[in-house]
Design a protein that fits this description.
Layout lengths: L2 H8 L3 H9 L13 H19 L1 H8 L9 H15 L1 H4 L4 H12 L8 H12 L2 H4 L3 H14 L9 H5 L3 H26 L1
Helix pairs in contact: 1-2, 2-3, 2-7, 3-12, 4-5, 4-12, 5-10
Length: 195
């Protein structure tokens, strides 16, 4: 899953939200550097990713993508699933998305200076462009995929991926709706176990 889903599934505790972001930037064993609550958020992020990568609905969604995107199917599916989460946000959360986004930004801003530089850089861009509020705009999905493609070390087709994915949106939407409630239930149970 991508950032909007990770923040949504982390709950509303600021440290868990910080961990939800850091899960993509902190690698290796957790040794207390970020504090217990933040590291619980990082652990939750990692377990959500593992659950998602093994889920049949996510595999099905990945297989629906054109052959040239198969190598990057995990990235594309994560971003497109955030698009659907944004578009149907009120089915999954009682707070309006812009208010939720602002609460996430307020939770992460005070802690950013102690993070790895790539996490700081991403967080600043996310807030500057209000990325979380804009995932429901397909132009944002195009820019996100292009941006990810630029950060990868090898040539890749992500810059033009959105155009190739658009004809598959109906099927991907069905896969999302089959998967996301299961992921929510899993995350809720996992958060209790990590507490």
């Amino acid at each position: 899953m991508n950032y909007l889903a990770h923040f949504h599934l982390a709950g509303d505790h600021p440290a868990m939200l910080q961990g939800a972001l850091l899960g993509d930037f902190v690698k290796g064993p957790l040794r207390g550097q970020y504090g217990d609550e933040v590291e619980r958020g990082i652990s939750l992020h990692r377990k959500i990713d593992a659950f998602s990568n093994g889920a049949e609905e996510v595999k099905q969604a990945s297989q629906a993508l054109p052959p040239e995107l198969q190598r990057y199917a995990g990235i594309v599916t994560d971003v497109v699933f955030d698009y659907f989460l944004s578009r149907y946000w009120r089915r999954f959360h009682s707070q309006h998305l812009p208010g939720f986004a602002q609460s996430v930004y307020q939770a992460i801003a005070p802690a950013m200076e102690d993070w790895p530089v790539p996490a700081q850089r991403f967080s600043r861009r996310m807030m500057e462009y209000d990325l979380l509020s804009n995932y429901g705009d397909w132009a944002t999905i195009e820019r996100v995929l292009e941006s990810i493609g630029l950060r990868l070390s090898r040539d890749n087709p992500l810059a033009g991926a959105a155009d190739k994915v658009q004809p598959k949106l109906k099927q991907l939407e069905q896969d999302f709706f089959q998967f996301y409630p299961r992921l929510q239930a899993y995350s809720h149970q996992l958060a209790k176990e990590l507490a």
